[in-house]
Amino acid sequence: MNGPGFPDRFGNNDVIPHFAKNGTALTQEERTAIAKRKGLCVVCGLKTHTISVFKKAPLTNDHIHKGICIKCNPTSVPAAVLQAYEHRNPRVNAPVVARVSRPTQPNQSAANRAKKNIRQPPTAPPSDVRSSNSSAVPPDMREAASSSSLAANKSKRLNNEVPPSQQQSFSSPVKAASSKKMGYTQQKKSSRGGISAPPLNNSNNNNNDNVKSNYNESFSSMDDMSAGAGQRPSRAIIEDYTGSVNSPDEVDIDSLLQTIKDDRGDPELLKQTLHRLRNFGFDRDPRGAMSEIRDLMDQYLNEPRIMAMACGALWRLAAGQENRKIEAAENGAIESIVDALRKDQNMEDPEFIQWAVGCLASLADAQEVKAYVAKIGGIEAVVDALNRHQDSPGVFEWAARALHNLCYQKPDEDDIGDLIAKNIVSIEETKGIAAMVGAMKLHSSEATAQRWAMRLLWSLQDQEDDAANARVLKKMKDDGFIKAAVKVLRHRSTDSETDLFRLSAEIMCNILVSDRSDAAFRDASDCLATIARSLKEDNAEDSIKHKVKQESCCRVIATLMNGTDYSRMLVAEANGVHAVLEAIEKSPDNLMLTQTGIWAFWSMSASDRDRDDIFLVKAAQTLCESMESQVQTFPDLLLPVCGFYGNMCLIHGTNGADIPIVSIVRALLTEEDGLILREADRAVSNFCLAFPDQVDVVVDAFDLTHLQQVLQSSSDLTPTLCGVIASVAAKNDRARSRMASPDMIASVLQKLRDPDDQGMTKCYLELLATLVISGNHKSTRMPEDIVQVVLRVIKTTGSRDIQWTCCALLRNLLASAASPPDVNGLVDCMISLVDSHGTQETLKSQACSVLWSLTAKYLKQDGNSLSEMSRCMINILIKYKGDQGPFDYDLLAMAAGALASVTACMIHNPVHVSSEDVDEIISVPYTALDFEADRTELYVRILDSIYNLSYVSDAVLIQCGVIVVVIDTMAEFEQCLEVQQFGCAILAVLASTENLQVNLSIVQTDGIDMIVNALALFCDDGVVQSQACKALSHLSIDEESRMLIASLGGLMLLGNTMRANMDKLDLLEGALSAVLSLSADADVELLIESNIVAVVVSVMRHHRAVSQIQEFGMGVLQNISMRCFESKQTIAEVGGIVAVTDCIREFMGSPTVLERAFTTLWSLAVLDQNQSLIAEADGINLVVNGMMTAITYEGVQKQGCGCLCTLSSDSRNKGLIQNVGGVDSIVYAMWAHFAAEEIQVEACRALSSLAVDAQTNEVMIASDGEVNAIISAMRRFPVSERLQEHACVALRNFLLSADNVDIIKSNEQEVKTLVQQAGSRFPEACQERANQVLANLG
């Protein structure tokens, strides 16, 4: 994420703000929305449209043509316009955009063109469409063997398909699953034979290593914080200032620094200057900037506001620059911050503390700065600040960040263990742990702050010194950490915070293992209900976060089961262990969950009081089927498996077939750890005692050892034996899992390194190709050089048969390896095989599958390799598509799959894609249809490639006519779900550019027809529904498209899909966005028939806390309400008014939502009967409170005044408005926005309506506030007819009461002058009211 003011896709454009009004950094999507709302070019910020309340009109001038920026979109304007612009603005090396001259046939349907065998699709009109990279961020990790749809992929990857595996006897379908390397802890003595209990420290289970590993991977870059990665203090300094500067290029940094130097005595000017430095940043390294800021800090050390701004400027200057952070330490700037934190007057300002501590957190990210901050007392200052402001969530968060950076060593840093240890001791001695735990107790809902606090505490108890860790854990326990952790675990905000949940649970368990006091276990048991509930939660997407959370829950259960009698009793009452088994049943591949679960089962099996034999037998049966293979992959399972199943052998009801005795025996043969050997020995003894009729199983388990000994000797297995092993392994996953131990694979590989018999090479390759295929529940750990050994065989052998087998081995290996092997030279070797003229098609296909597996498993590929692989695959498409040579569907499908995987990698590392390449790709469906129209995998994979390329080079795709190809393919395979998924997704991406020419091309080629058809045909598929809704939302910006969508039944379909998918936010947002556009001009009868109002209200109620849903929903209600009076009544009848008031109540702090809500209520209040309904729903009170909350926002105040004015036409509402402070809110709005004419007009109109109640013949008693506000408005806007008219009416109405005459007479002369001027200037509108005012004043 870009930091504050950092360059992003808008370049140096600051017309579009970088920060929200509350000071938080805006995202790229938010800035794009602002640009469109303001009618600006999203690239350079030039004005492209004039904006009014209900109209957006395009501009045309020297830089803009019909709303299109000529400079940024040269291909979207006529050639003559572009030529004239370039003549006026000559530029060097102007980009040349290729224009394809092939003719188009816009009036011919896509389906008809496909039937006429058009080989080359026509191109769309030349256009320049900006990249959609911001919405195409690919996932950090994709499993090679997964085949997930867009519905399960947040990065918009539709299908991460992997190449199909070979069906020969030595190979089975490629499968892959992630596995985590874990260790196990040392166990205390267990008895030989009989029932044994797990060791007292079993709950640790070396999970610390796993947590530490994940922690380092996820949070090693603490400097992201220093760059302001969305983590600046929660509130901005109030007097934000840009100096009317539109771009950082316009900022003279040297001049600003000179201002700081020359005007030290002018605090206001210094504030402005520091703001400009912070907001626009340092695009270069200005000489002396750090020193100037330091000197300024020294001068204003006791001024918290200026110090806060100086800290912000320093933060920005040093962000991401380690040398600047070191300079800040060397020149004394850090010392100044610490000194300021020691000042009592500064410490009373929590906002300054946030900026100061946040700046320290950023600076302390540098290794050299950590020691300096600690040396000058920075740790003490931060802890003191936290103690003083424990009730401030911002101070809590930034203090946690700062202390974390001071005691955290990044993986790439030099060893600073001694420094970290000293800093940790300092935190302990300053009672930092107590301060942090105290703050945690007060802010259980602050997930971000809690997460950083947990990371800090994790670092404190994760030292190399076990004694130090024990000391820290005891302090945490004494300071009440367990209760704080329980409170965090139970809070709803923690549900989605996997890391927070995990760290809280892990630290709590570590404390329990270290302390083991009754009180500690009693406190920890309070979270059992939450833990049990979390374990029982379903996980439809099988997400990593859900797995981690369940693992943490399982460890808590296991720790409590290994605790006191009381804690075991509470676990039993909560059915905690039962919940663990249910979780394991739902996620049988989660090895960490299985391991921790077995510890819990072991504890239960060792307890006479809490043991449930029937349940334990079921658990043993559930786990046994996969235990043998899992133990091989995950050695940490061995100890609990041996202990648990050793006990189970002596429990009545256990079946010997449910005991993984083979794995236990293997442990006796291969393991060296004494604890495992002891428990395994006990388990085998108990097994032989309990099941004497099955002892042959134990004996049979020793055969694999013999095979391995043979492989490690100078002898060879016979070809027959190799074949038998491979055949059995290929037919049975469990058998293969037993055979495919790392040692077995290494032994076979050794035979390929130094072959004694060349004739055995193929046999060993086939055996290895089978052994490396992972089962459903494990990944195989491979020798690091296995790929290099196989490549050497390919290069040295002349047998194509052996090369084919090598490729099959590599394909299976890449999909199954638990860790990345050394693949250096793999890409070049496979491309060489594909490009070789003597290579058979079957070998080419196998080589393509290797590249497919490589890019599907390892997304990060360098640009040159991606270019070479894509070129290679495209050459196959050219050669074998059948128009100029042979047609080979299987080879084309394999090459297309590899190309789709390669283009997916391009999203991570974009490379140049030429129009010639795109032409060749999109021509394949047309030529292939002549040969094969029944199978669809080729066409799906071509669309997959196009989808990926739409994020890499959408402009090239559009120019090459890809829209026509996609729509033709959708029409040809109308019943194919995958084709419709990709088709809708591609059209959604291309339409998201909101380029009118692109949208027109989609409309003219029946694109909307196909999208609506897919929406109707696949109503149960979430991917199609979501992508179709997104596409329609973008296409509906055009009036012609809206009419077409409505005529095809789009409104009804959108309503149906929203009704059926109430929990899918992406789909709902897209559908509501489309309905918002359609409701602006759709036929009123169609809107009523579609029942869209009821659907929208239901969606709003279902997602009350989602601002985007509420905003879109209210926009729809507003549009429909303004169409006719009947619609206002319909909205009220289905609960629309309550939905809007609920929205105001939920988003009282969001000005954007409030403005939309007030506008909607204003429109609904026009209907008289709705006015009382709005009042009954507390609408009046909410409007008044909203106006007070967002007093600085013009839009909110204008719509609020208008809404109150309309509501006040009801006699009862007048009193309600006055009673809840409505008059005050109107007056405040007038004073807060004295220069806004529209607000003054609406305010005067509202006051004039509130002044008199015609039904009761009562006049409101005015105050000086109302009168002075009206007079001020008349004085400021003398030429505004509407304002003068309503002001005169308001004064006339107030003067109807004698009590008000005296108040107004205090300003008699000015009032008379103003009304006389209004009457003479606007006689028709104001003369009569002016005369009445003058008459009443005498």
From TrEMBL:
Composition-biased stretches (Low complexity): 163-173, 201-218
Amino acid composition bias (Polar residues), ranges on this chain: 102-111
Region (Disordered): 96-231
InterPro entries assigned: ARM-like, ARM-type_fold, ARM_LRRK2, Armadillo
Segments annotated as ARM repeats: 288-332, 332-378, 377-416, 1221-1265
Residue ranges constituting the LRRK2 ARM repeat domain according to the UniProt record: 966-1132, 1175-1327
Keyword hit for Repeat: yes
Keyword vocabulary terms for this entry: Repeat
The protein's name in its UniProt record: LRRK2 ARM repeat domain-containing protein
Species annotation: Seminavis robusta
